[in-house]
Specification:
With 371 residues, the protein is an alpha/beta fold. It is 38% helix and 16% strand. The longest helix has 24 residues. It binds zinc ion.
Length: 371
Amino acid sequence: MPLRLAFGRPSSFGAAPFLRRVEGTIPPEMATQSSWVVVGLDNGGNKNNATVLDPAKGSLVDGMIETPSRVTEGPQIAVEALVQAFDSILERTGVARARVRAVGLDTPGPASADGVISSMGSTNFAHEGWRGFDFRGALEARLRLPVVYNNDGNAAALYAHHLCFGAEAARHSSVSAIVGTGLGGGVIEAGRIVKGAAGMAGELGHVHIPMPGLLAEGQPIPRCNCGFDGDAESVASLTGIEKNLLPYWLKRYEGHELARAGSLAQAAKLVRSLGEKGDPMARRIFEQQAMAIGRLFTIAANFTDPSAYFVGGGVVETALEFREWFMGKVRENTILREEQTRAARFALVPDLDMAGARGAALAALEHATRL
Ligand SMILES: [Zn+2]
């Protein structure tokens, strides 16, 4: 039963159970085998979220099952915290450990394709012990089960893809742009994550986009934390709002209430709710973000010509009017050929909190069917 889910409608958000939806995402050849399951573990800065996926029944977990991730205490403690998350999700779902065939793990980046944390360190993995730590390998050794690693953007992209295309997933491709502190996401080709030679494919935030026509008069070229000028993340991210967009727009809207927010970081977090209420400056900022995503998607259209373009992040949680306005601007700025317009769809990625664990589980499922 292929899944047909309209992401753009409010009814597709929130309450609908995942179980029914995910059934459609499992190809029939996988669904006949029900003796084994896979577990998905989403490792975040504060919490781990866990899920169990049964090829015959779909997800066995409806909501978020969170436990502390303890990543700031270093890798040894964090691995044990994941083992605990693994044990407790099995207990909660009443699944015997012997039935688990593989485990999916996702974390924020940067990490290699095999889950070795960058030697440069990162926001979540600031503790010394994380530098160059083989997170995937350590969890695999501890659990004595195959562990499949993906970064959180790629896991979310895989989830969005399967949720949208269901049993048809392997016949489609998609690109996901997820706006958060940075701009994450991923590229899915024939139902599988494109990882690249070094595991760095799908770093959509650091793709350069054309700035003429996007920037307003006198607006400086935005800079990204990665060192690039004028990439997609320098505009379409919370960091981009704080560092690049707000400093310019606050000068254009003198006396704006956000000038009194205390700091640019605090002000940046308030832009979304003001945008929802129709504040003109906030709308200019979000329009620039939508243009950046549209220009990024235009590059994708000419690069991999995907069947779907997904947008995720805080904008998904906003009021219907704002969501539709934002997606309209993204579409308007994505230049497709006529044939592409007929073949492609645009949608918001729902249930983003769950996307990491569920995407990680789907990657483990794909791995497990090949065992
Ligand atoms: Zn960048």
